[in-house]
Every structure is written in structure tokens, then in C-alpha cells.
Automatic annotation (TrEMBL):
Protein name from the UniProt record: Lipase
Keyword Signal attached: yes
GO terms, biological process: lipid catabolic process
Protein keywords: Signal
Length: 432
């Protein structure tokens, strides 16, 4: 694990601030009017990402050996002082680090976003010297474009620090890389709820092997948290667990932070309606389009979405080997210089499928948890606006959930993740 300084806040930048122009306004208007072009449904077999076909795979009994271990590698054995040293560059200095931690990288069998067999990886962090039966905590990480930036990777930075923080507090911590990150093949389906859930459930199954090696028993109740994209992933995982995704696992608690729960109602309008760096919006939209297309076809040819002179550039930049800074530097500074006008205006099949996929991925809060829920977020967050959390809370409450919102105040996005971590521990200690 790298310890040379604090993680870059640019990796947490999701939609940024973009200049609202005619093309952007057209896409926003299409969403606001609820108008998906009639031709956008396309062929019956070309369902968008997040479709019921994909969600159903998350809910059935394991197939393809899902959750079975391909490989387990012990990475670090850290005493308590070393854990605290690893956490200090990230301001995770709370006295929660009471235990040493043993970390494992696990490669395991799962399904891809279309329900086909694949493998994924993740980090498992086991407290040393803790209780014989340990409580299980799933941590879902934030936006990461580089494969090695996922929790199991060599440049994980804060994506490794958060699991260490929770494990140091005595929780058996499972941190999925998601599909296509870490050691997983292919492209990452960014913000794709069904695959976030399936990859996480299957890592929880695979994590029983590190537990066996460390001689600990695992509580069947899973405490779920996550930050940024991980807030969205945490809601998706918790929803799957509550629906019985694995008969040996139950949802024990839910406390996500600063998640983009409402792409259609909050994130896209915020991006299209502000001024600033359009490259950040190009990154987020490009990442979504490419990732969701890997899940379920949005287009037959990438030229339906991207300008012909940008296709090779986009595919090169989003190959999982470039950093966020490199991608931002390589993208045009205007949406109209990256995307086809027909796509931005919502006049082709790709646009309709993209908008339908967005709506289907905006359903992670549409359920009634059987446990109390707290949503952490900051009113000062300009990257993932507080309105996301308000929208999620309204949706949960309308279904009868016991949910509360904790406003972390006038701080930014990355600080909201750091500030929420000790509060997550306190919530789980008091309410689970």
C-alpha cells in the first residue's frame, strides 16, 4: 500500500461543473420531460444496463460457482501502530484503530453485468486479536478509473485506507473492487447497480476463506457502508441482501455516505446547469456510456455516441490503465467536441437507451429496509450534491423505512467521506 501522502481529490470528482450549452440543455430537457424516443427501445434483446434480467441474477441461488475462490493472497500483517501509520495521511486518525490487521487479496467467481460467468477481486481486512466471532462490514469504494486504484490494487490509496480503518476498529471488512477493476477482466460498468450488488455479494461469500485461514467465525449479519459511488453501491448491496441474495447472509445495518442516488433528478441537472470544467462532465458521461454499454448494448457502433475523431481517443483513455488526471487532460473541453449532437439532443437510439439505463440505475433507494438507515452527506458538497441524499431519504421514507439524514455541514465531497467514517462506526455500535 502506498503511504506517500493523501489521495488525490480529483479521483472523487464525479460530474464537476460544466458549461450549459444548447446540446446539454437538449439532453436535460429530454430527461425533464420524461421523453425517451419511441425508437429508443430498439431490439427486444438489447435491454439497457440495470435491466430486470441483470437484477434477477443477483437474487437467485448461486450459479457458475459464484463466490467460489480462485485465489487468495495474504498481503500485509500490520500491528496496531502500523495501521494507525497507514491511516494518518488520510486524516483517519480517530482512536478507532485498536487492532492490528491482516489483509488478503481475493479473486473469486461471479457474474458480469449481463449475467455471464466472470471473475472479480477485492480486499478482505481481518482484525488481529479481536473476538473469535467477528462482525462483518462491507465497504463500497468511490469512483476509480484505474484498475490498480481499487481496494486490492497497488495504488489503492484511500480505497485501502477506509477498509483498514474499519478493520482496525474490530470489523471483519470486505471491500469489493467491483467488476473490471482490480484483477477483474474487461471494462468497469460504472455506477451499475445490479453488478455492484452481485460482485459484492459474491465477495462476501468468498471472504469465508480468509476467515477460515485466520481462525475466525463470521456473524451472518452484514453491516453495509460506502462513499461516493460506494454510497450507490452500498444501497444496491443492502437491497440485494434484504431481498435474500444469499440465505446465509442478512442485512445488519446500512450507513452510506455522499452517494449519487439520483442521476436523473440531481446529478445530470447539476452538471448541465453550472459553469466550470466540462472535461469532468465528459469524463463522467463517457465513463457511464462505455461501462453501461459493456453491460447491455446502448449502441451498435461507438460513433453513435462519440464523434468519429474521438472514438479511438476515448477507448484508449478509458482502458483501466490511465489515471483520472490523464483522462481529464486527454478529453476535449467542450461536450460538443466529444459527443455526437444527435446523442446530446436525445434524437438517436443510443440516447434513449442511455436515459432508460440511467432511470433503471436510479432505483437503489426504492425499497423498505428492515433495519434503521442513516444517510451521511454534506450540504457543502458541490460534486455529489446534498439533494441526492434528500431524494434517497424521501424515496425510502415513502416506502415506510426508518431513515434519517446526518448533514455533515459546509464541507466538500472528499471531506464528507473522511468525516462520516467515525460516525458510521458510532451508528453501527448504537443501532445494530
Amino acid at each position: 500500500m502506498r503511504t506517500g501522502g493523501r489521495a488525490s481529490t480529483t479521483r472523487r470528482r464525479r460530474w464537476g461543473r460544466a458549461v450549459a450549452g444548447p446540446a446539454g440543455a437538449a439532453l436535460l430537457l429530454l430527461l425533464a420531460n420524461g421523453a425517451v424516443p419511441a425508437h429508443a427501445a430498439g431490439r427486444p434483446d438489447a435491454a439497457p444496463s440495470g435491466s430486470r434480467a441483470a437484477v434477477a441474477d443477483t437474487e437467485r441461488a448461486p450459479a457458475y460457482g459464484r463466490g467460489s475462490v480462485v485465489s487468495v493472497r495474504r498481503v500485509d500483517v500490520l500491528d496496531r501502530d502500523r495501521v494507525r501509520e497507514q491511516l494518518s495521511p488520510y486524516d483517519l486518525n480517530a482512536p478507532a484503530a485498536e487492532y492490528g490487521v491482516v489483509t488478503y487479496v481475493v479473486v473469486y467467481r461471479t457474474i458480469d453485468a449481463a449475467g455471464r460467468p466472470t471473475v472479480a477481486s477485492g480486499l478482505v481486512a481481518v482484525p488481529r486479536g479481536g473476538a473469535r466471532t467477528q462482525r462483518v462490514l462491507a465497504f463500497e469504494h468511490g469512483t476509480t478509473v484505474e484498475k490498480v486504484g481499487a481496494p486490492s490494487g497497488e495504488r489503492a490509496d484511500d480505497n485501502r485506507a477506509f477498509p483498514l480503518f474499519y478493520a482496525g476498529a474490530g470489523y471483519f471488512t470486505v471491500a469489493p473492487d467491483y467488476l473490471g477493476l482490480g484483477l477483474g477482466p474487461g471494462r468497469h460498468p460504472y455506477d451499475h447497480a445490479a453488478s455492484e450488488a452481485s460482485a459484492s455479494v459474491d465477495l462476501l461469500r468468498a471472504a469465508r476463506e480468509p476467515a477460515r485461514r485466520e481462525g475466525v467465525r463470521l456473524d451472518e449479519r452484514v453491516l453495509v457502508t460506502g462513499f461516493s459511488q460506494g454510497g450507490h453501491a452500498a444501497m444496491a448491496l443492502a437491497k440485494a441482501l434484504d431481498a435474500g441474495a444469499d440465505p446465509r447472509l442478512t442485512l445488519g445495518g446500512l450507513a452510506p455516505a455522499s452517494g449519487p442516488y439520483d442521476l436523473e433528478g440531481v446529478m445530470l441537472p447539476a452538471a448541465m446547469g453550472t459553469t466550470g470544467d466540462a472535461r469532468a462532465v465528459n469524463l463522467a458521461l463517457g465513463y457511464l456510456v462505455l461501462g453501461w454499454n459493456a453491460a447491455r448494448p446502448l449502441y451498435r457502433h461507438p460513433e453513435e455516441v462519440f464523434l468519429p475523431d474521438q472514438v479511438a481517443n476515448v477507448l484508449r483513455l478509458f482502458d483501466g490503465r490511465h489515471t483520472e488526471e490523464q483522462i481529464l487532460a486527454g478529453l476535449p473541453d467542450r461536450r460538443e467536441a466529444l459527443f455526437q449532437a444527435e446523442f446530446l439532443a436525445g434524437r438517436n437510439e443510443a440516447a434513449g437507451r442511455f436515459l432508460a439505463a440511467m432511470r433503471e440505475n436510479d432505483t437503489t433507494c426504492a425499497w423498505r429496509p428492515r433495519v434503521p438507515v442513516v444517510l451521511f452527506a454534506a450540504r457543502g458538497d458541490r460534486e455529489v450534491p446534498f439533494a441526492n441524499t434528500e431524494s434517497c431519504a424521501r424515496t425510502l421514507s415513502a416506502r415506510g423505512a426508518d431513515v434519517r439524514v446526518t448533514d455533515l455541514g459546509d464541507i466538500g465531497h472528499y471531506p464528507s467521506g473522511i468525516g462520516s467514517a467515525p460516525l458510521v462506526l458510532a451508528w453501527f455500535a448504537d443501532h445494530t
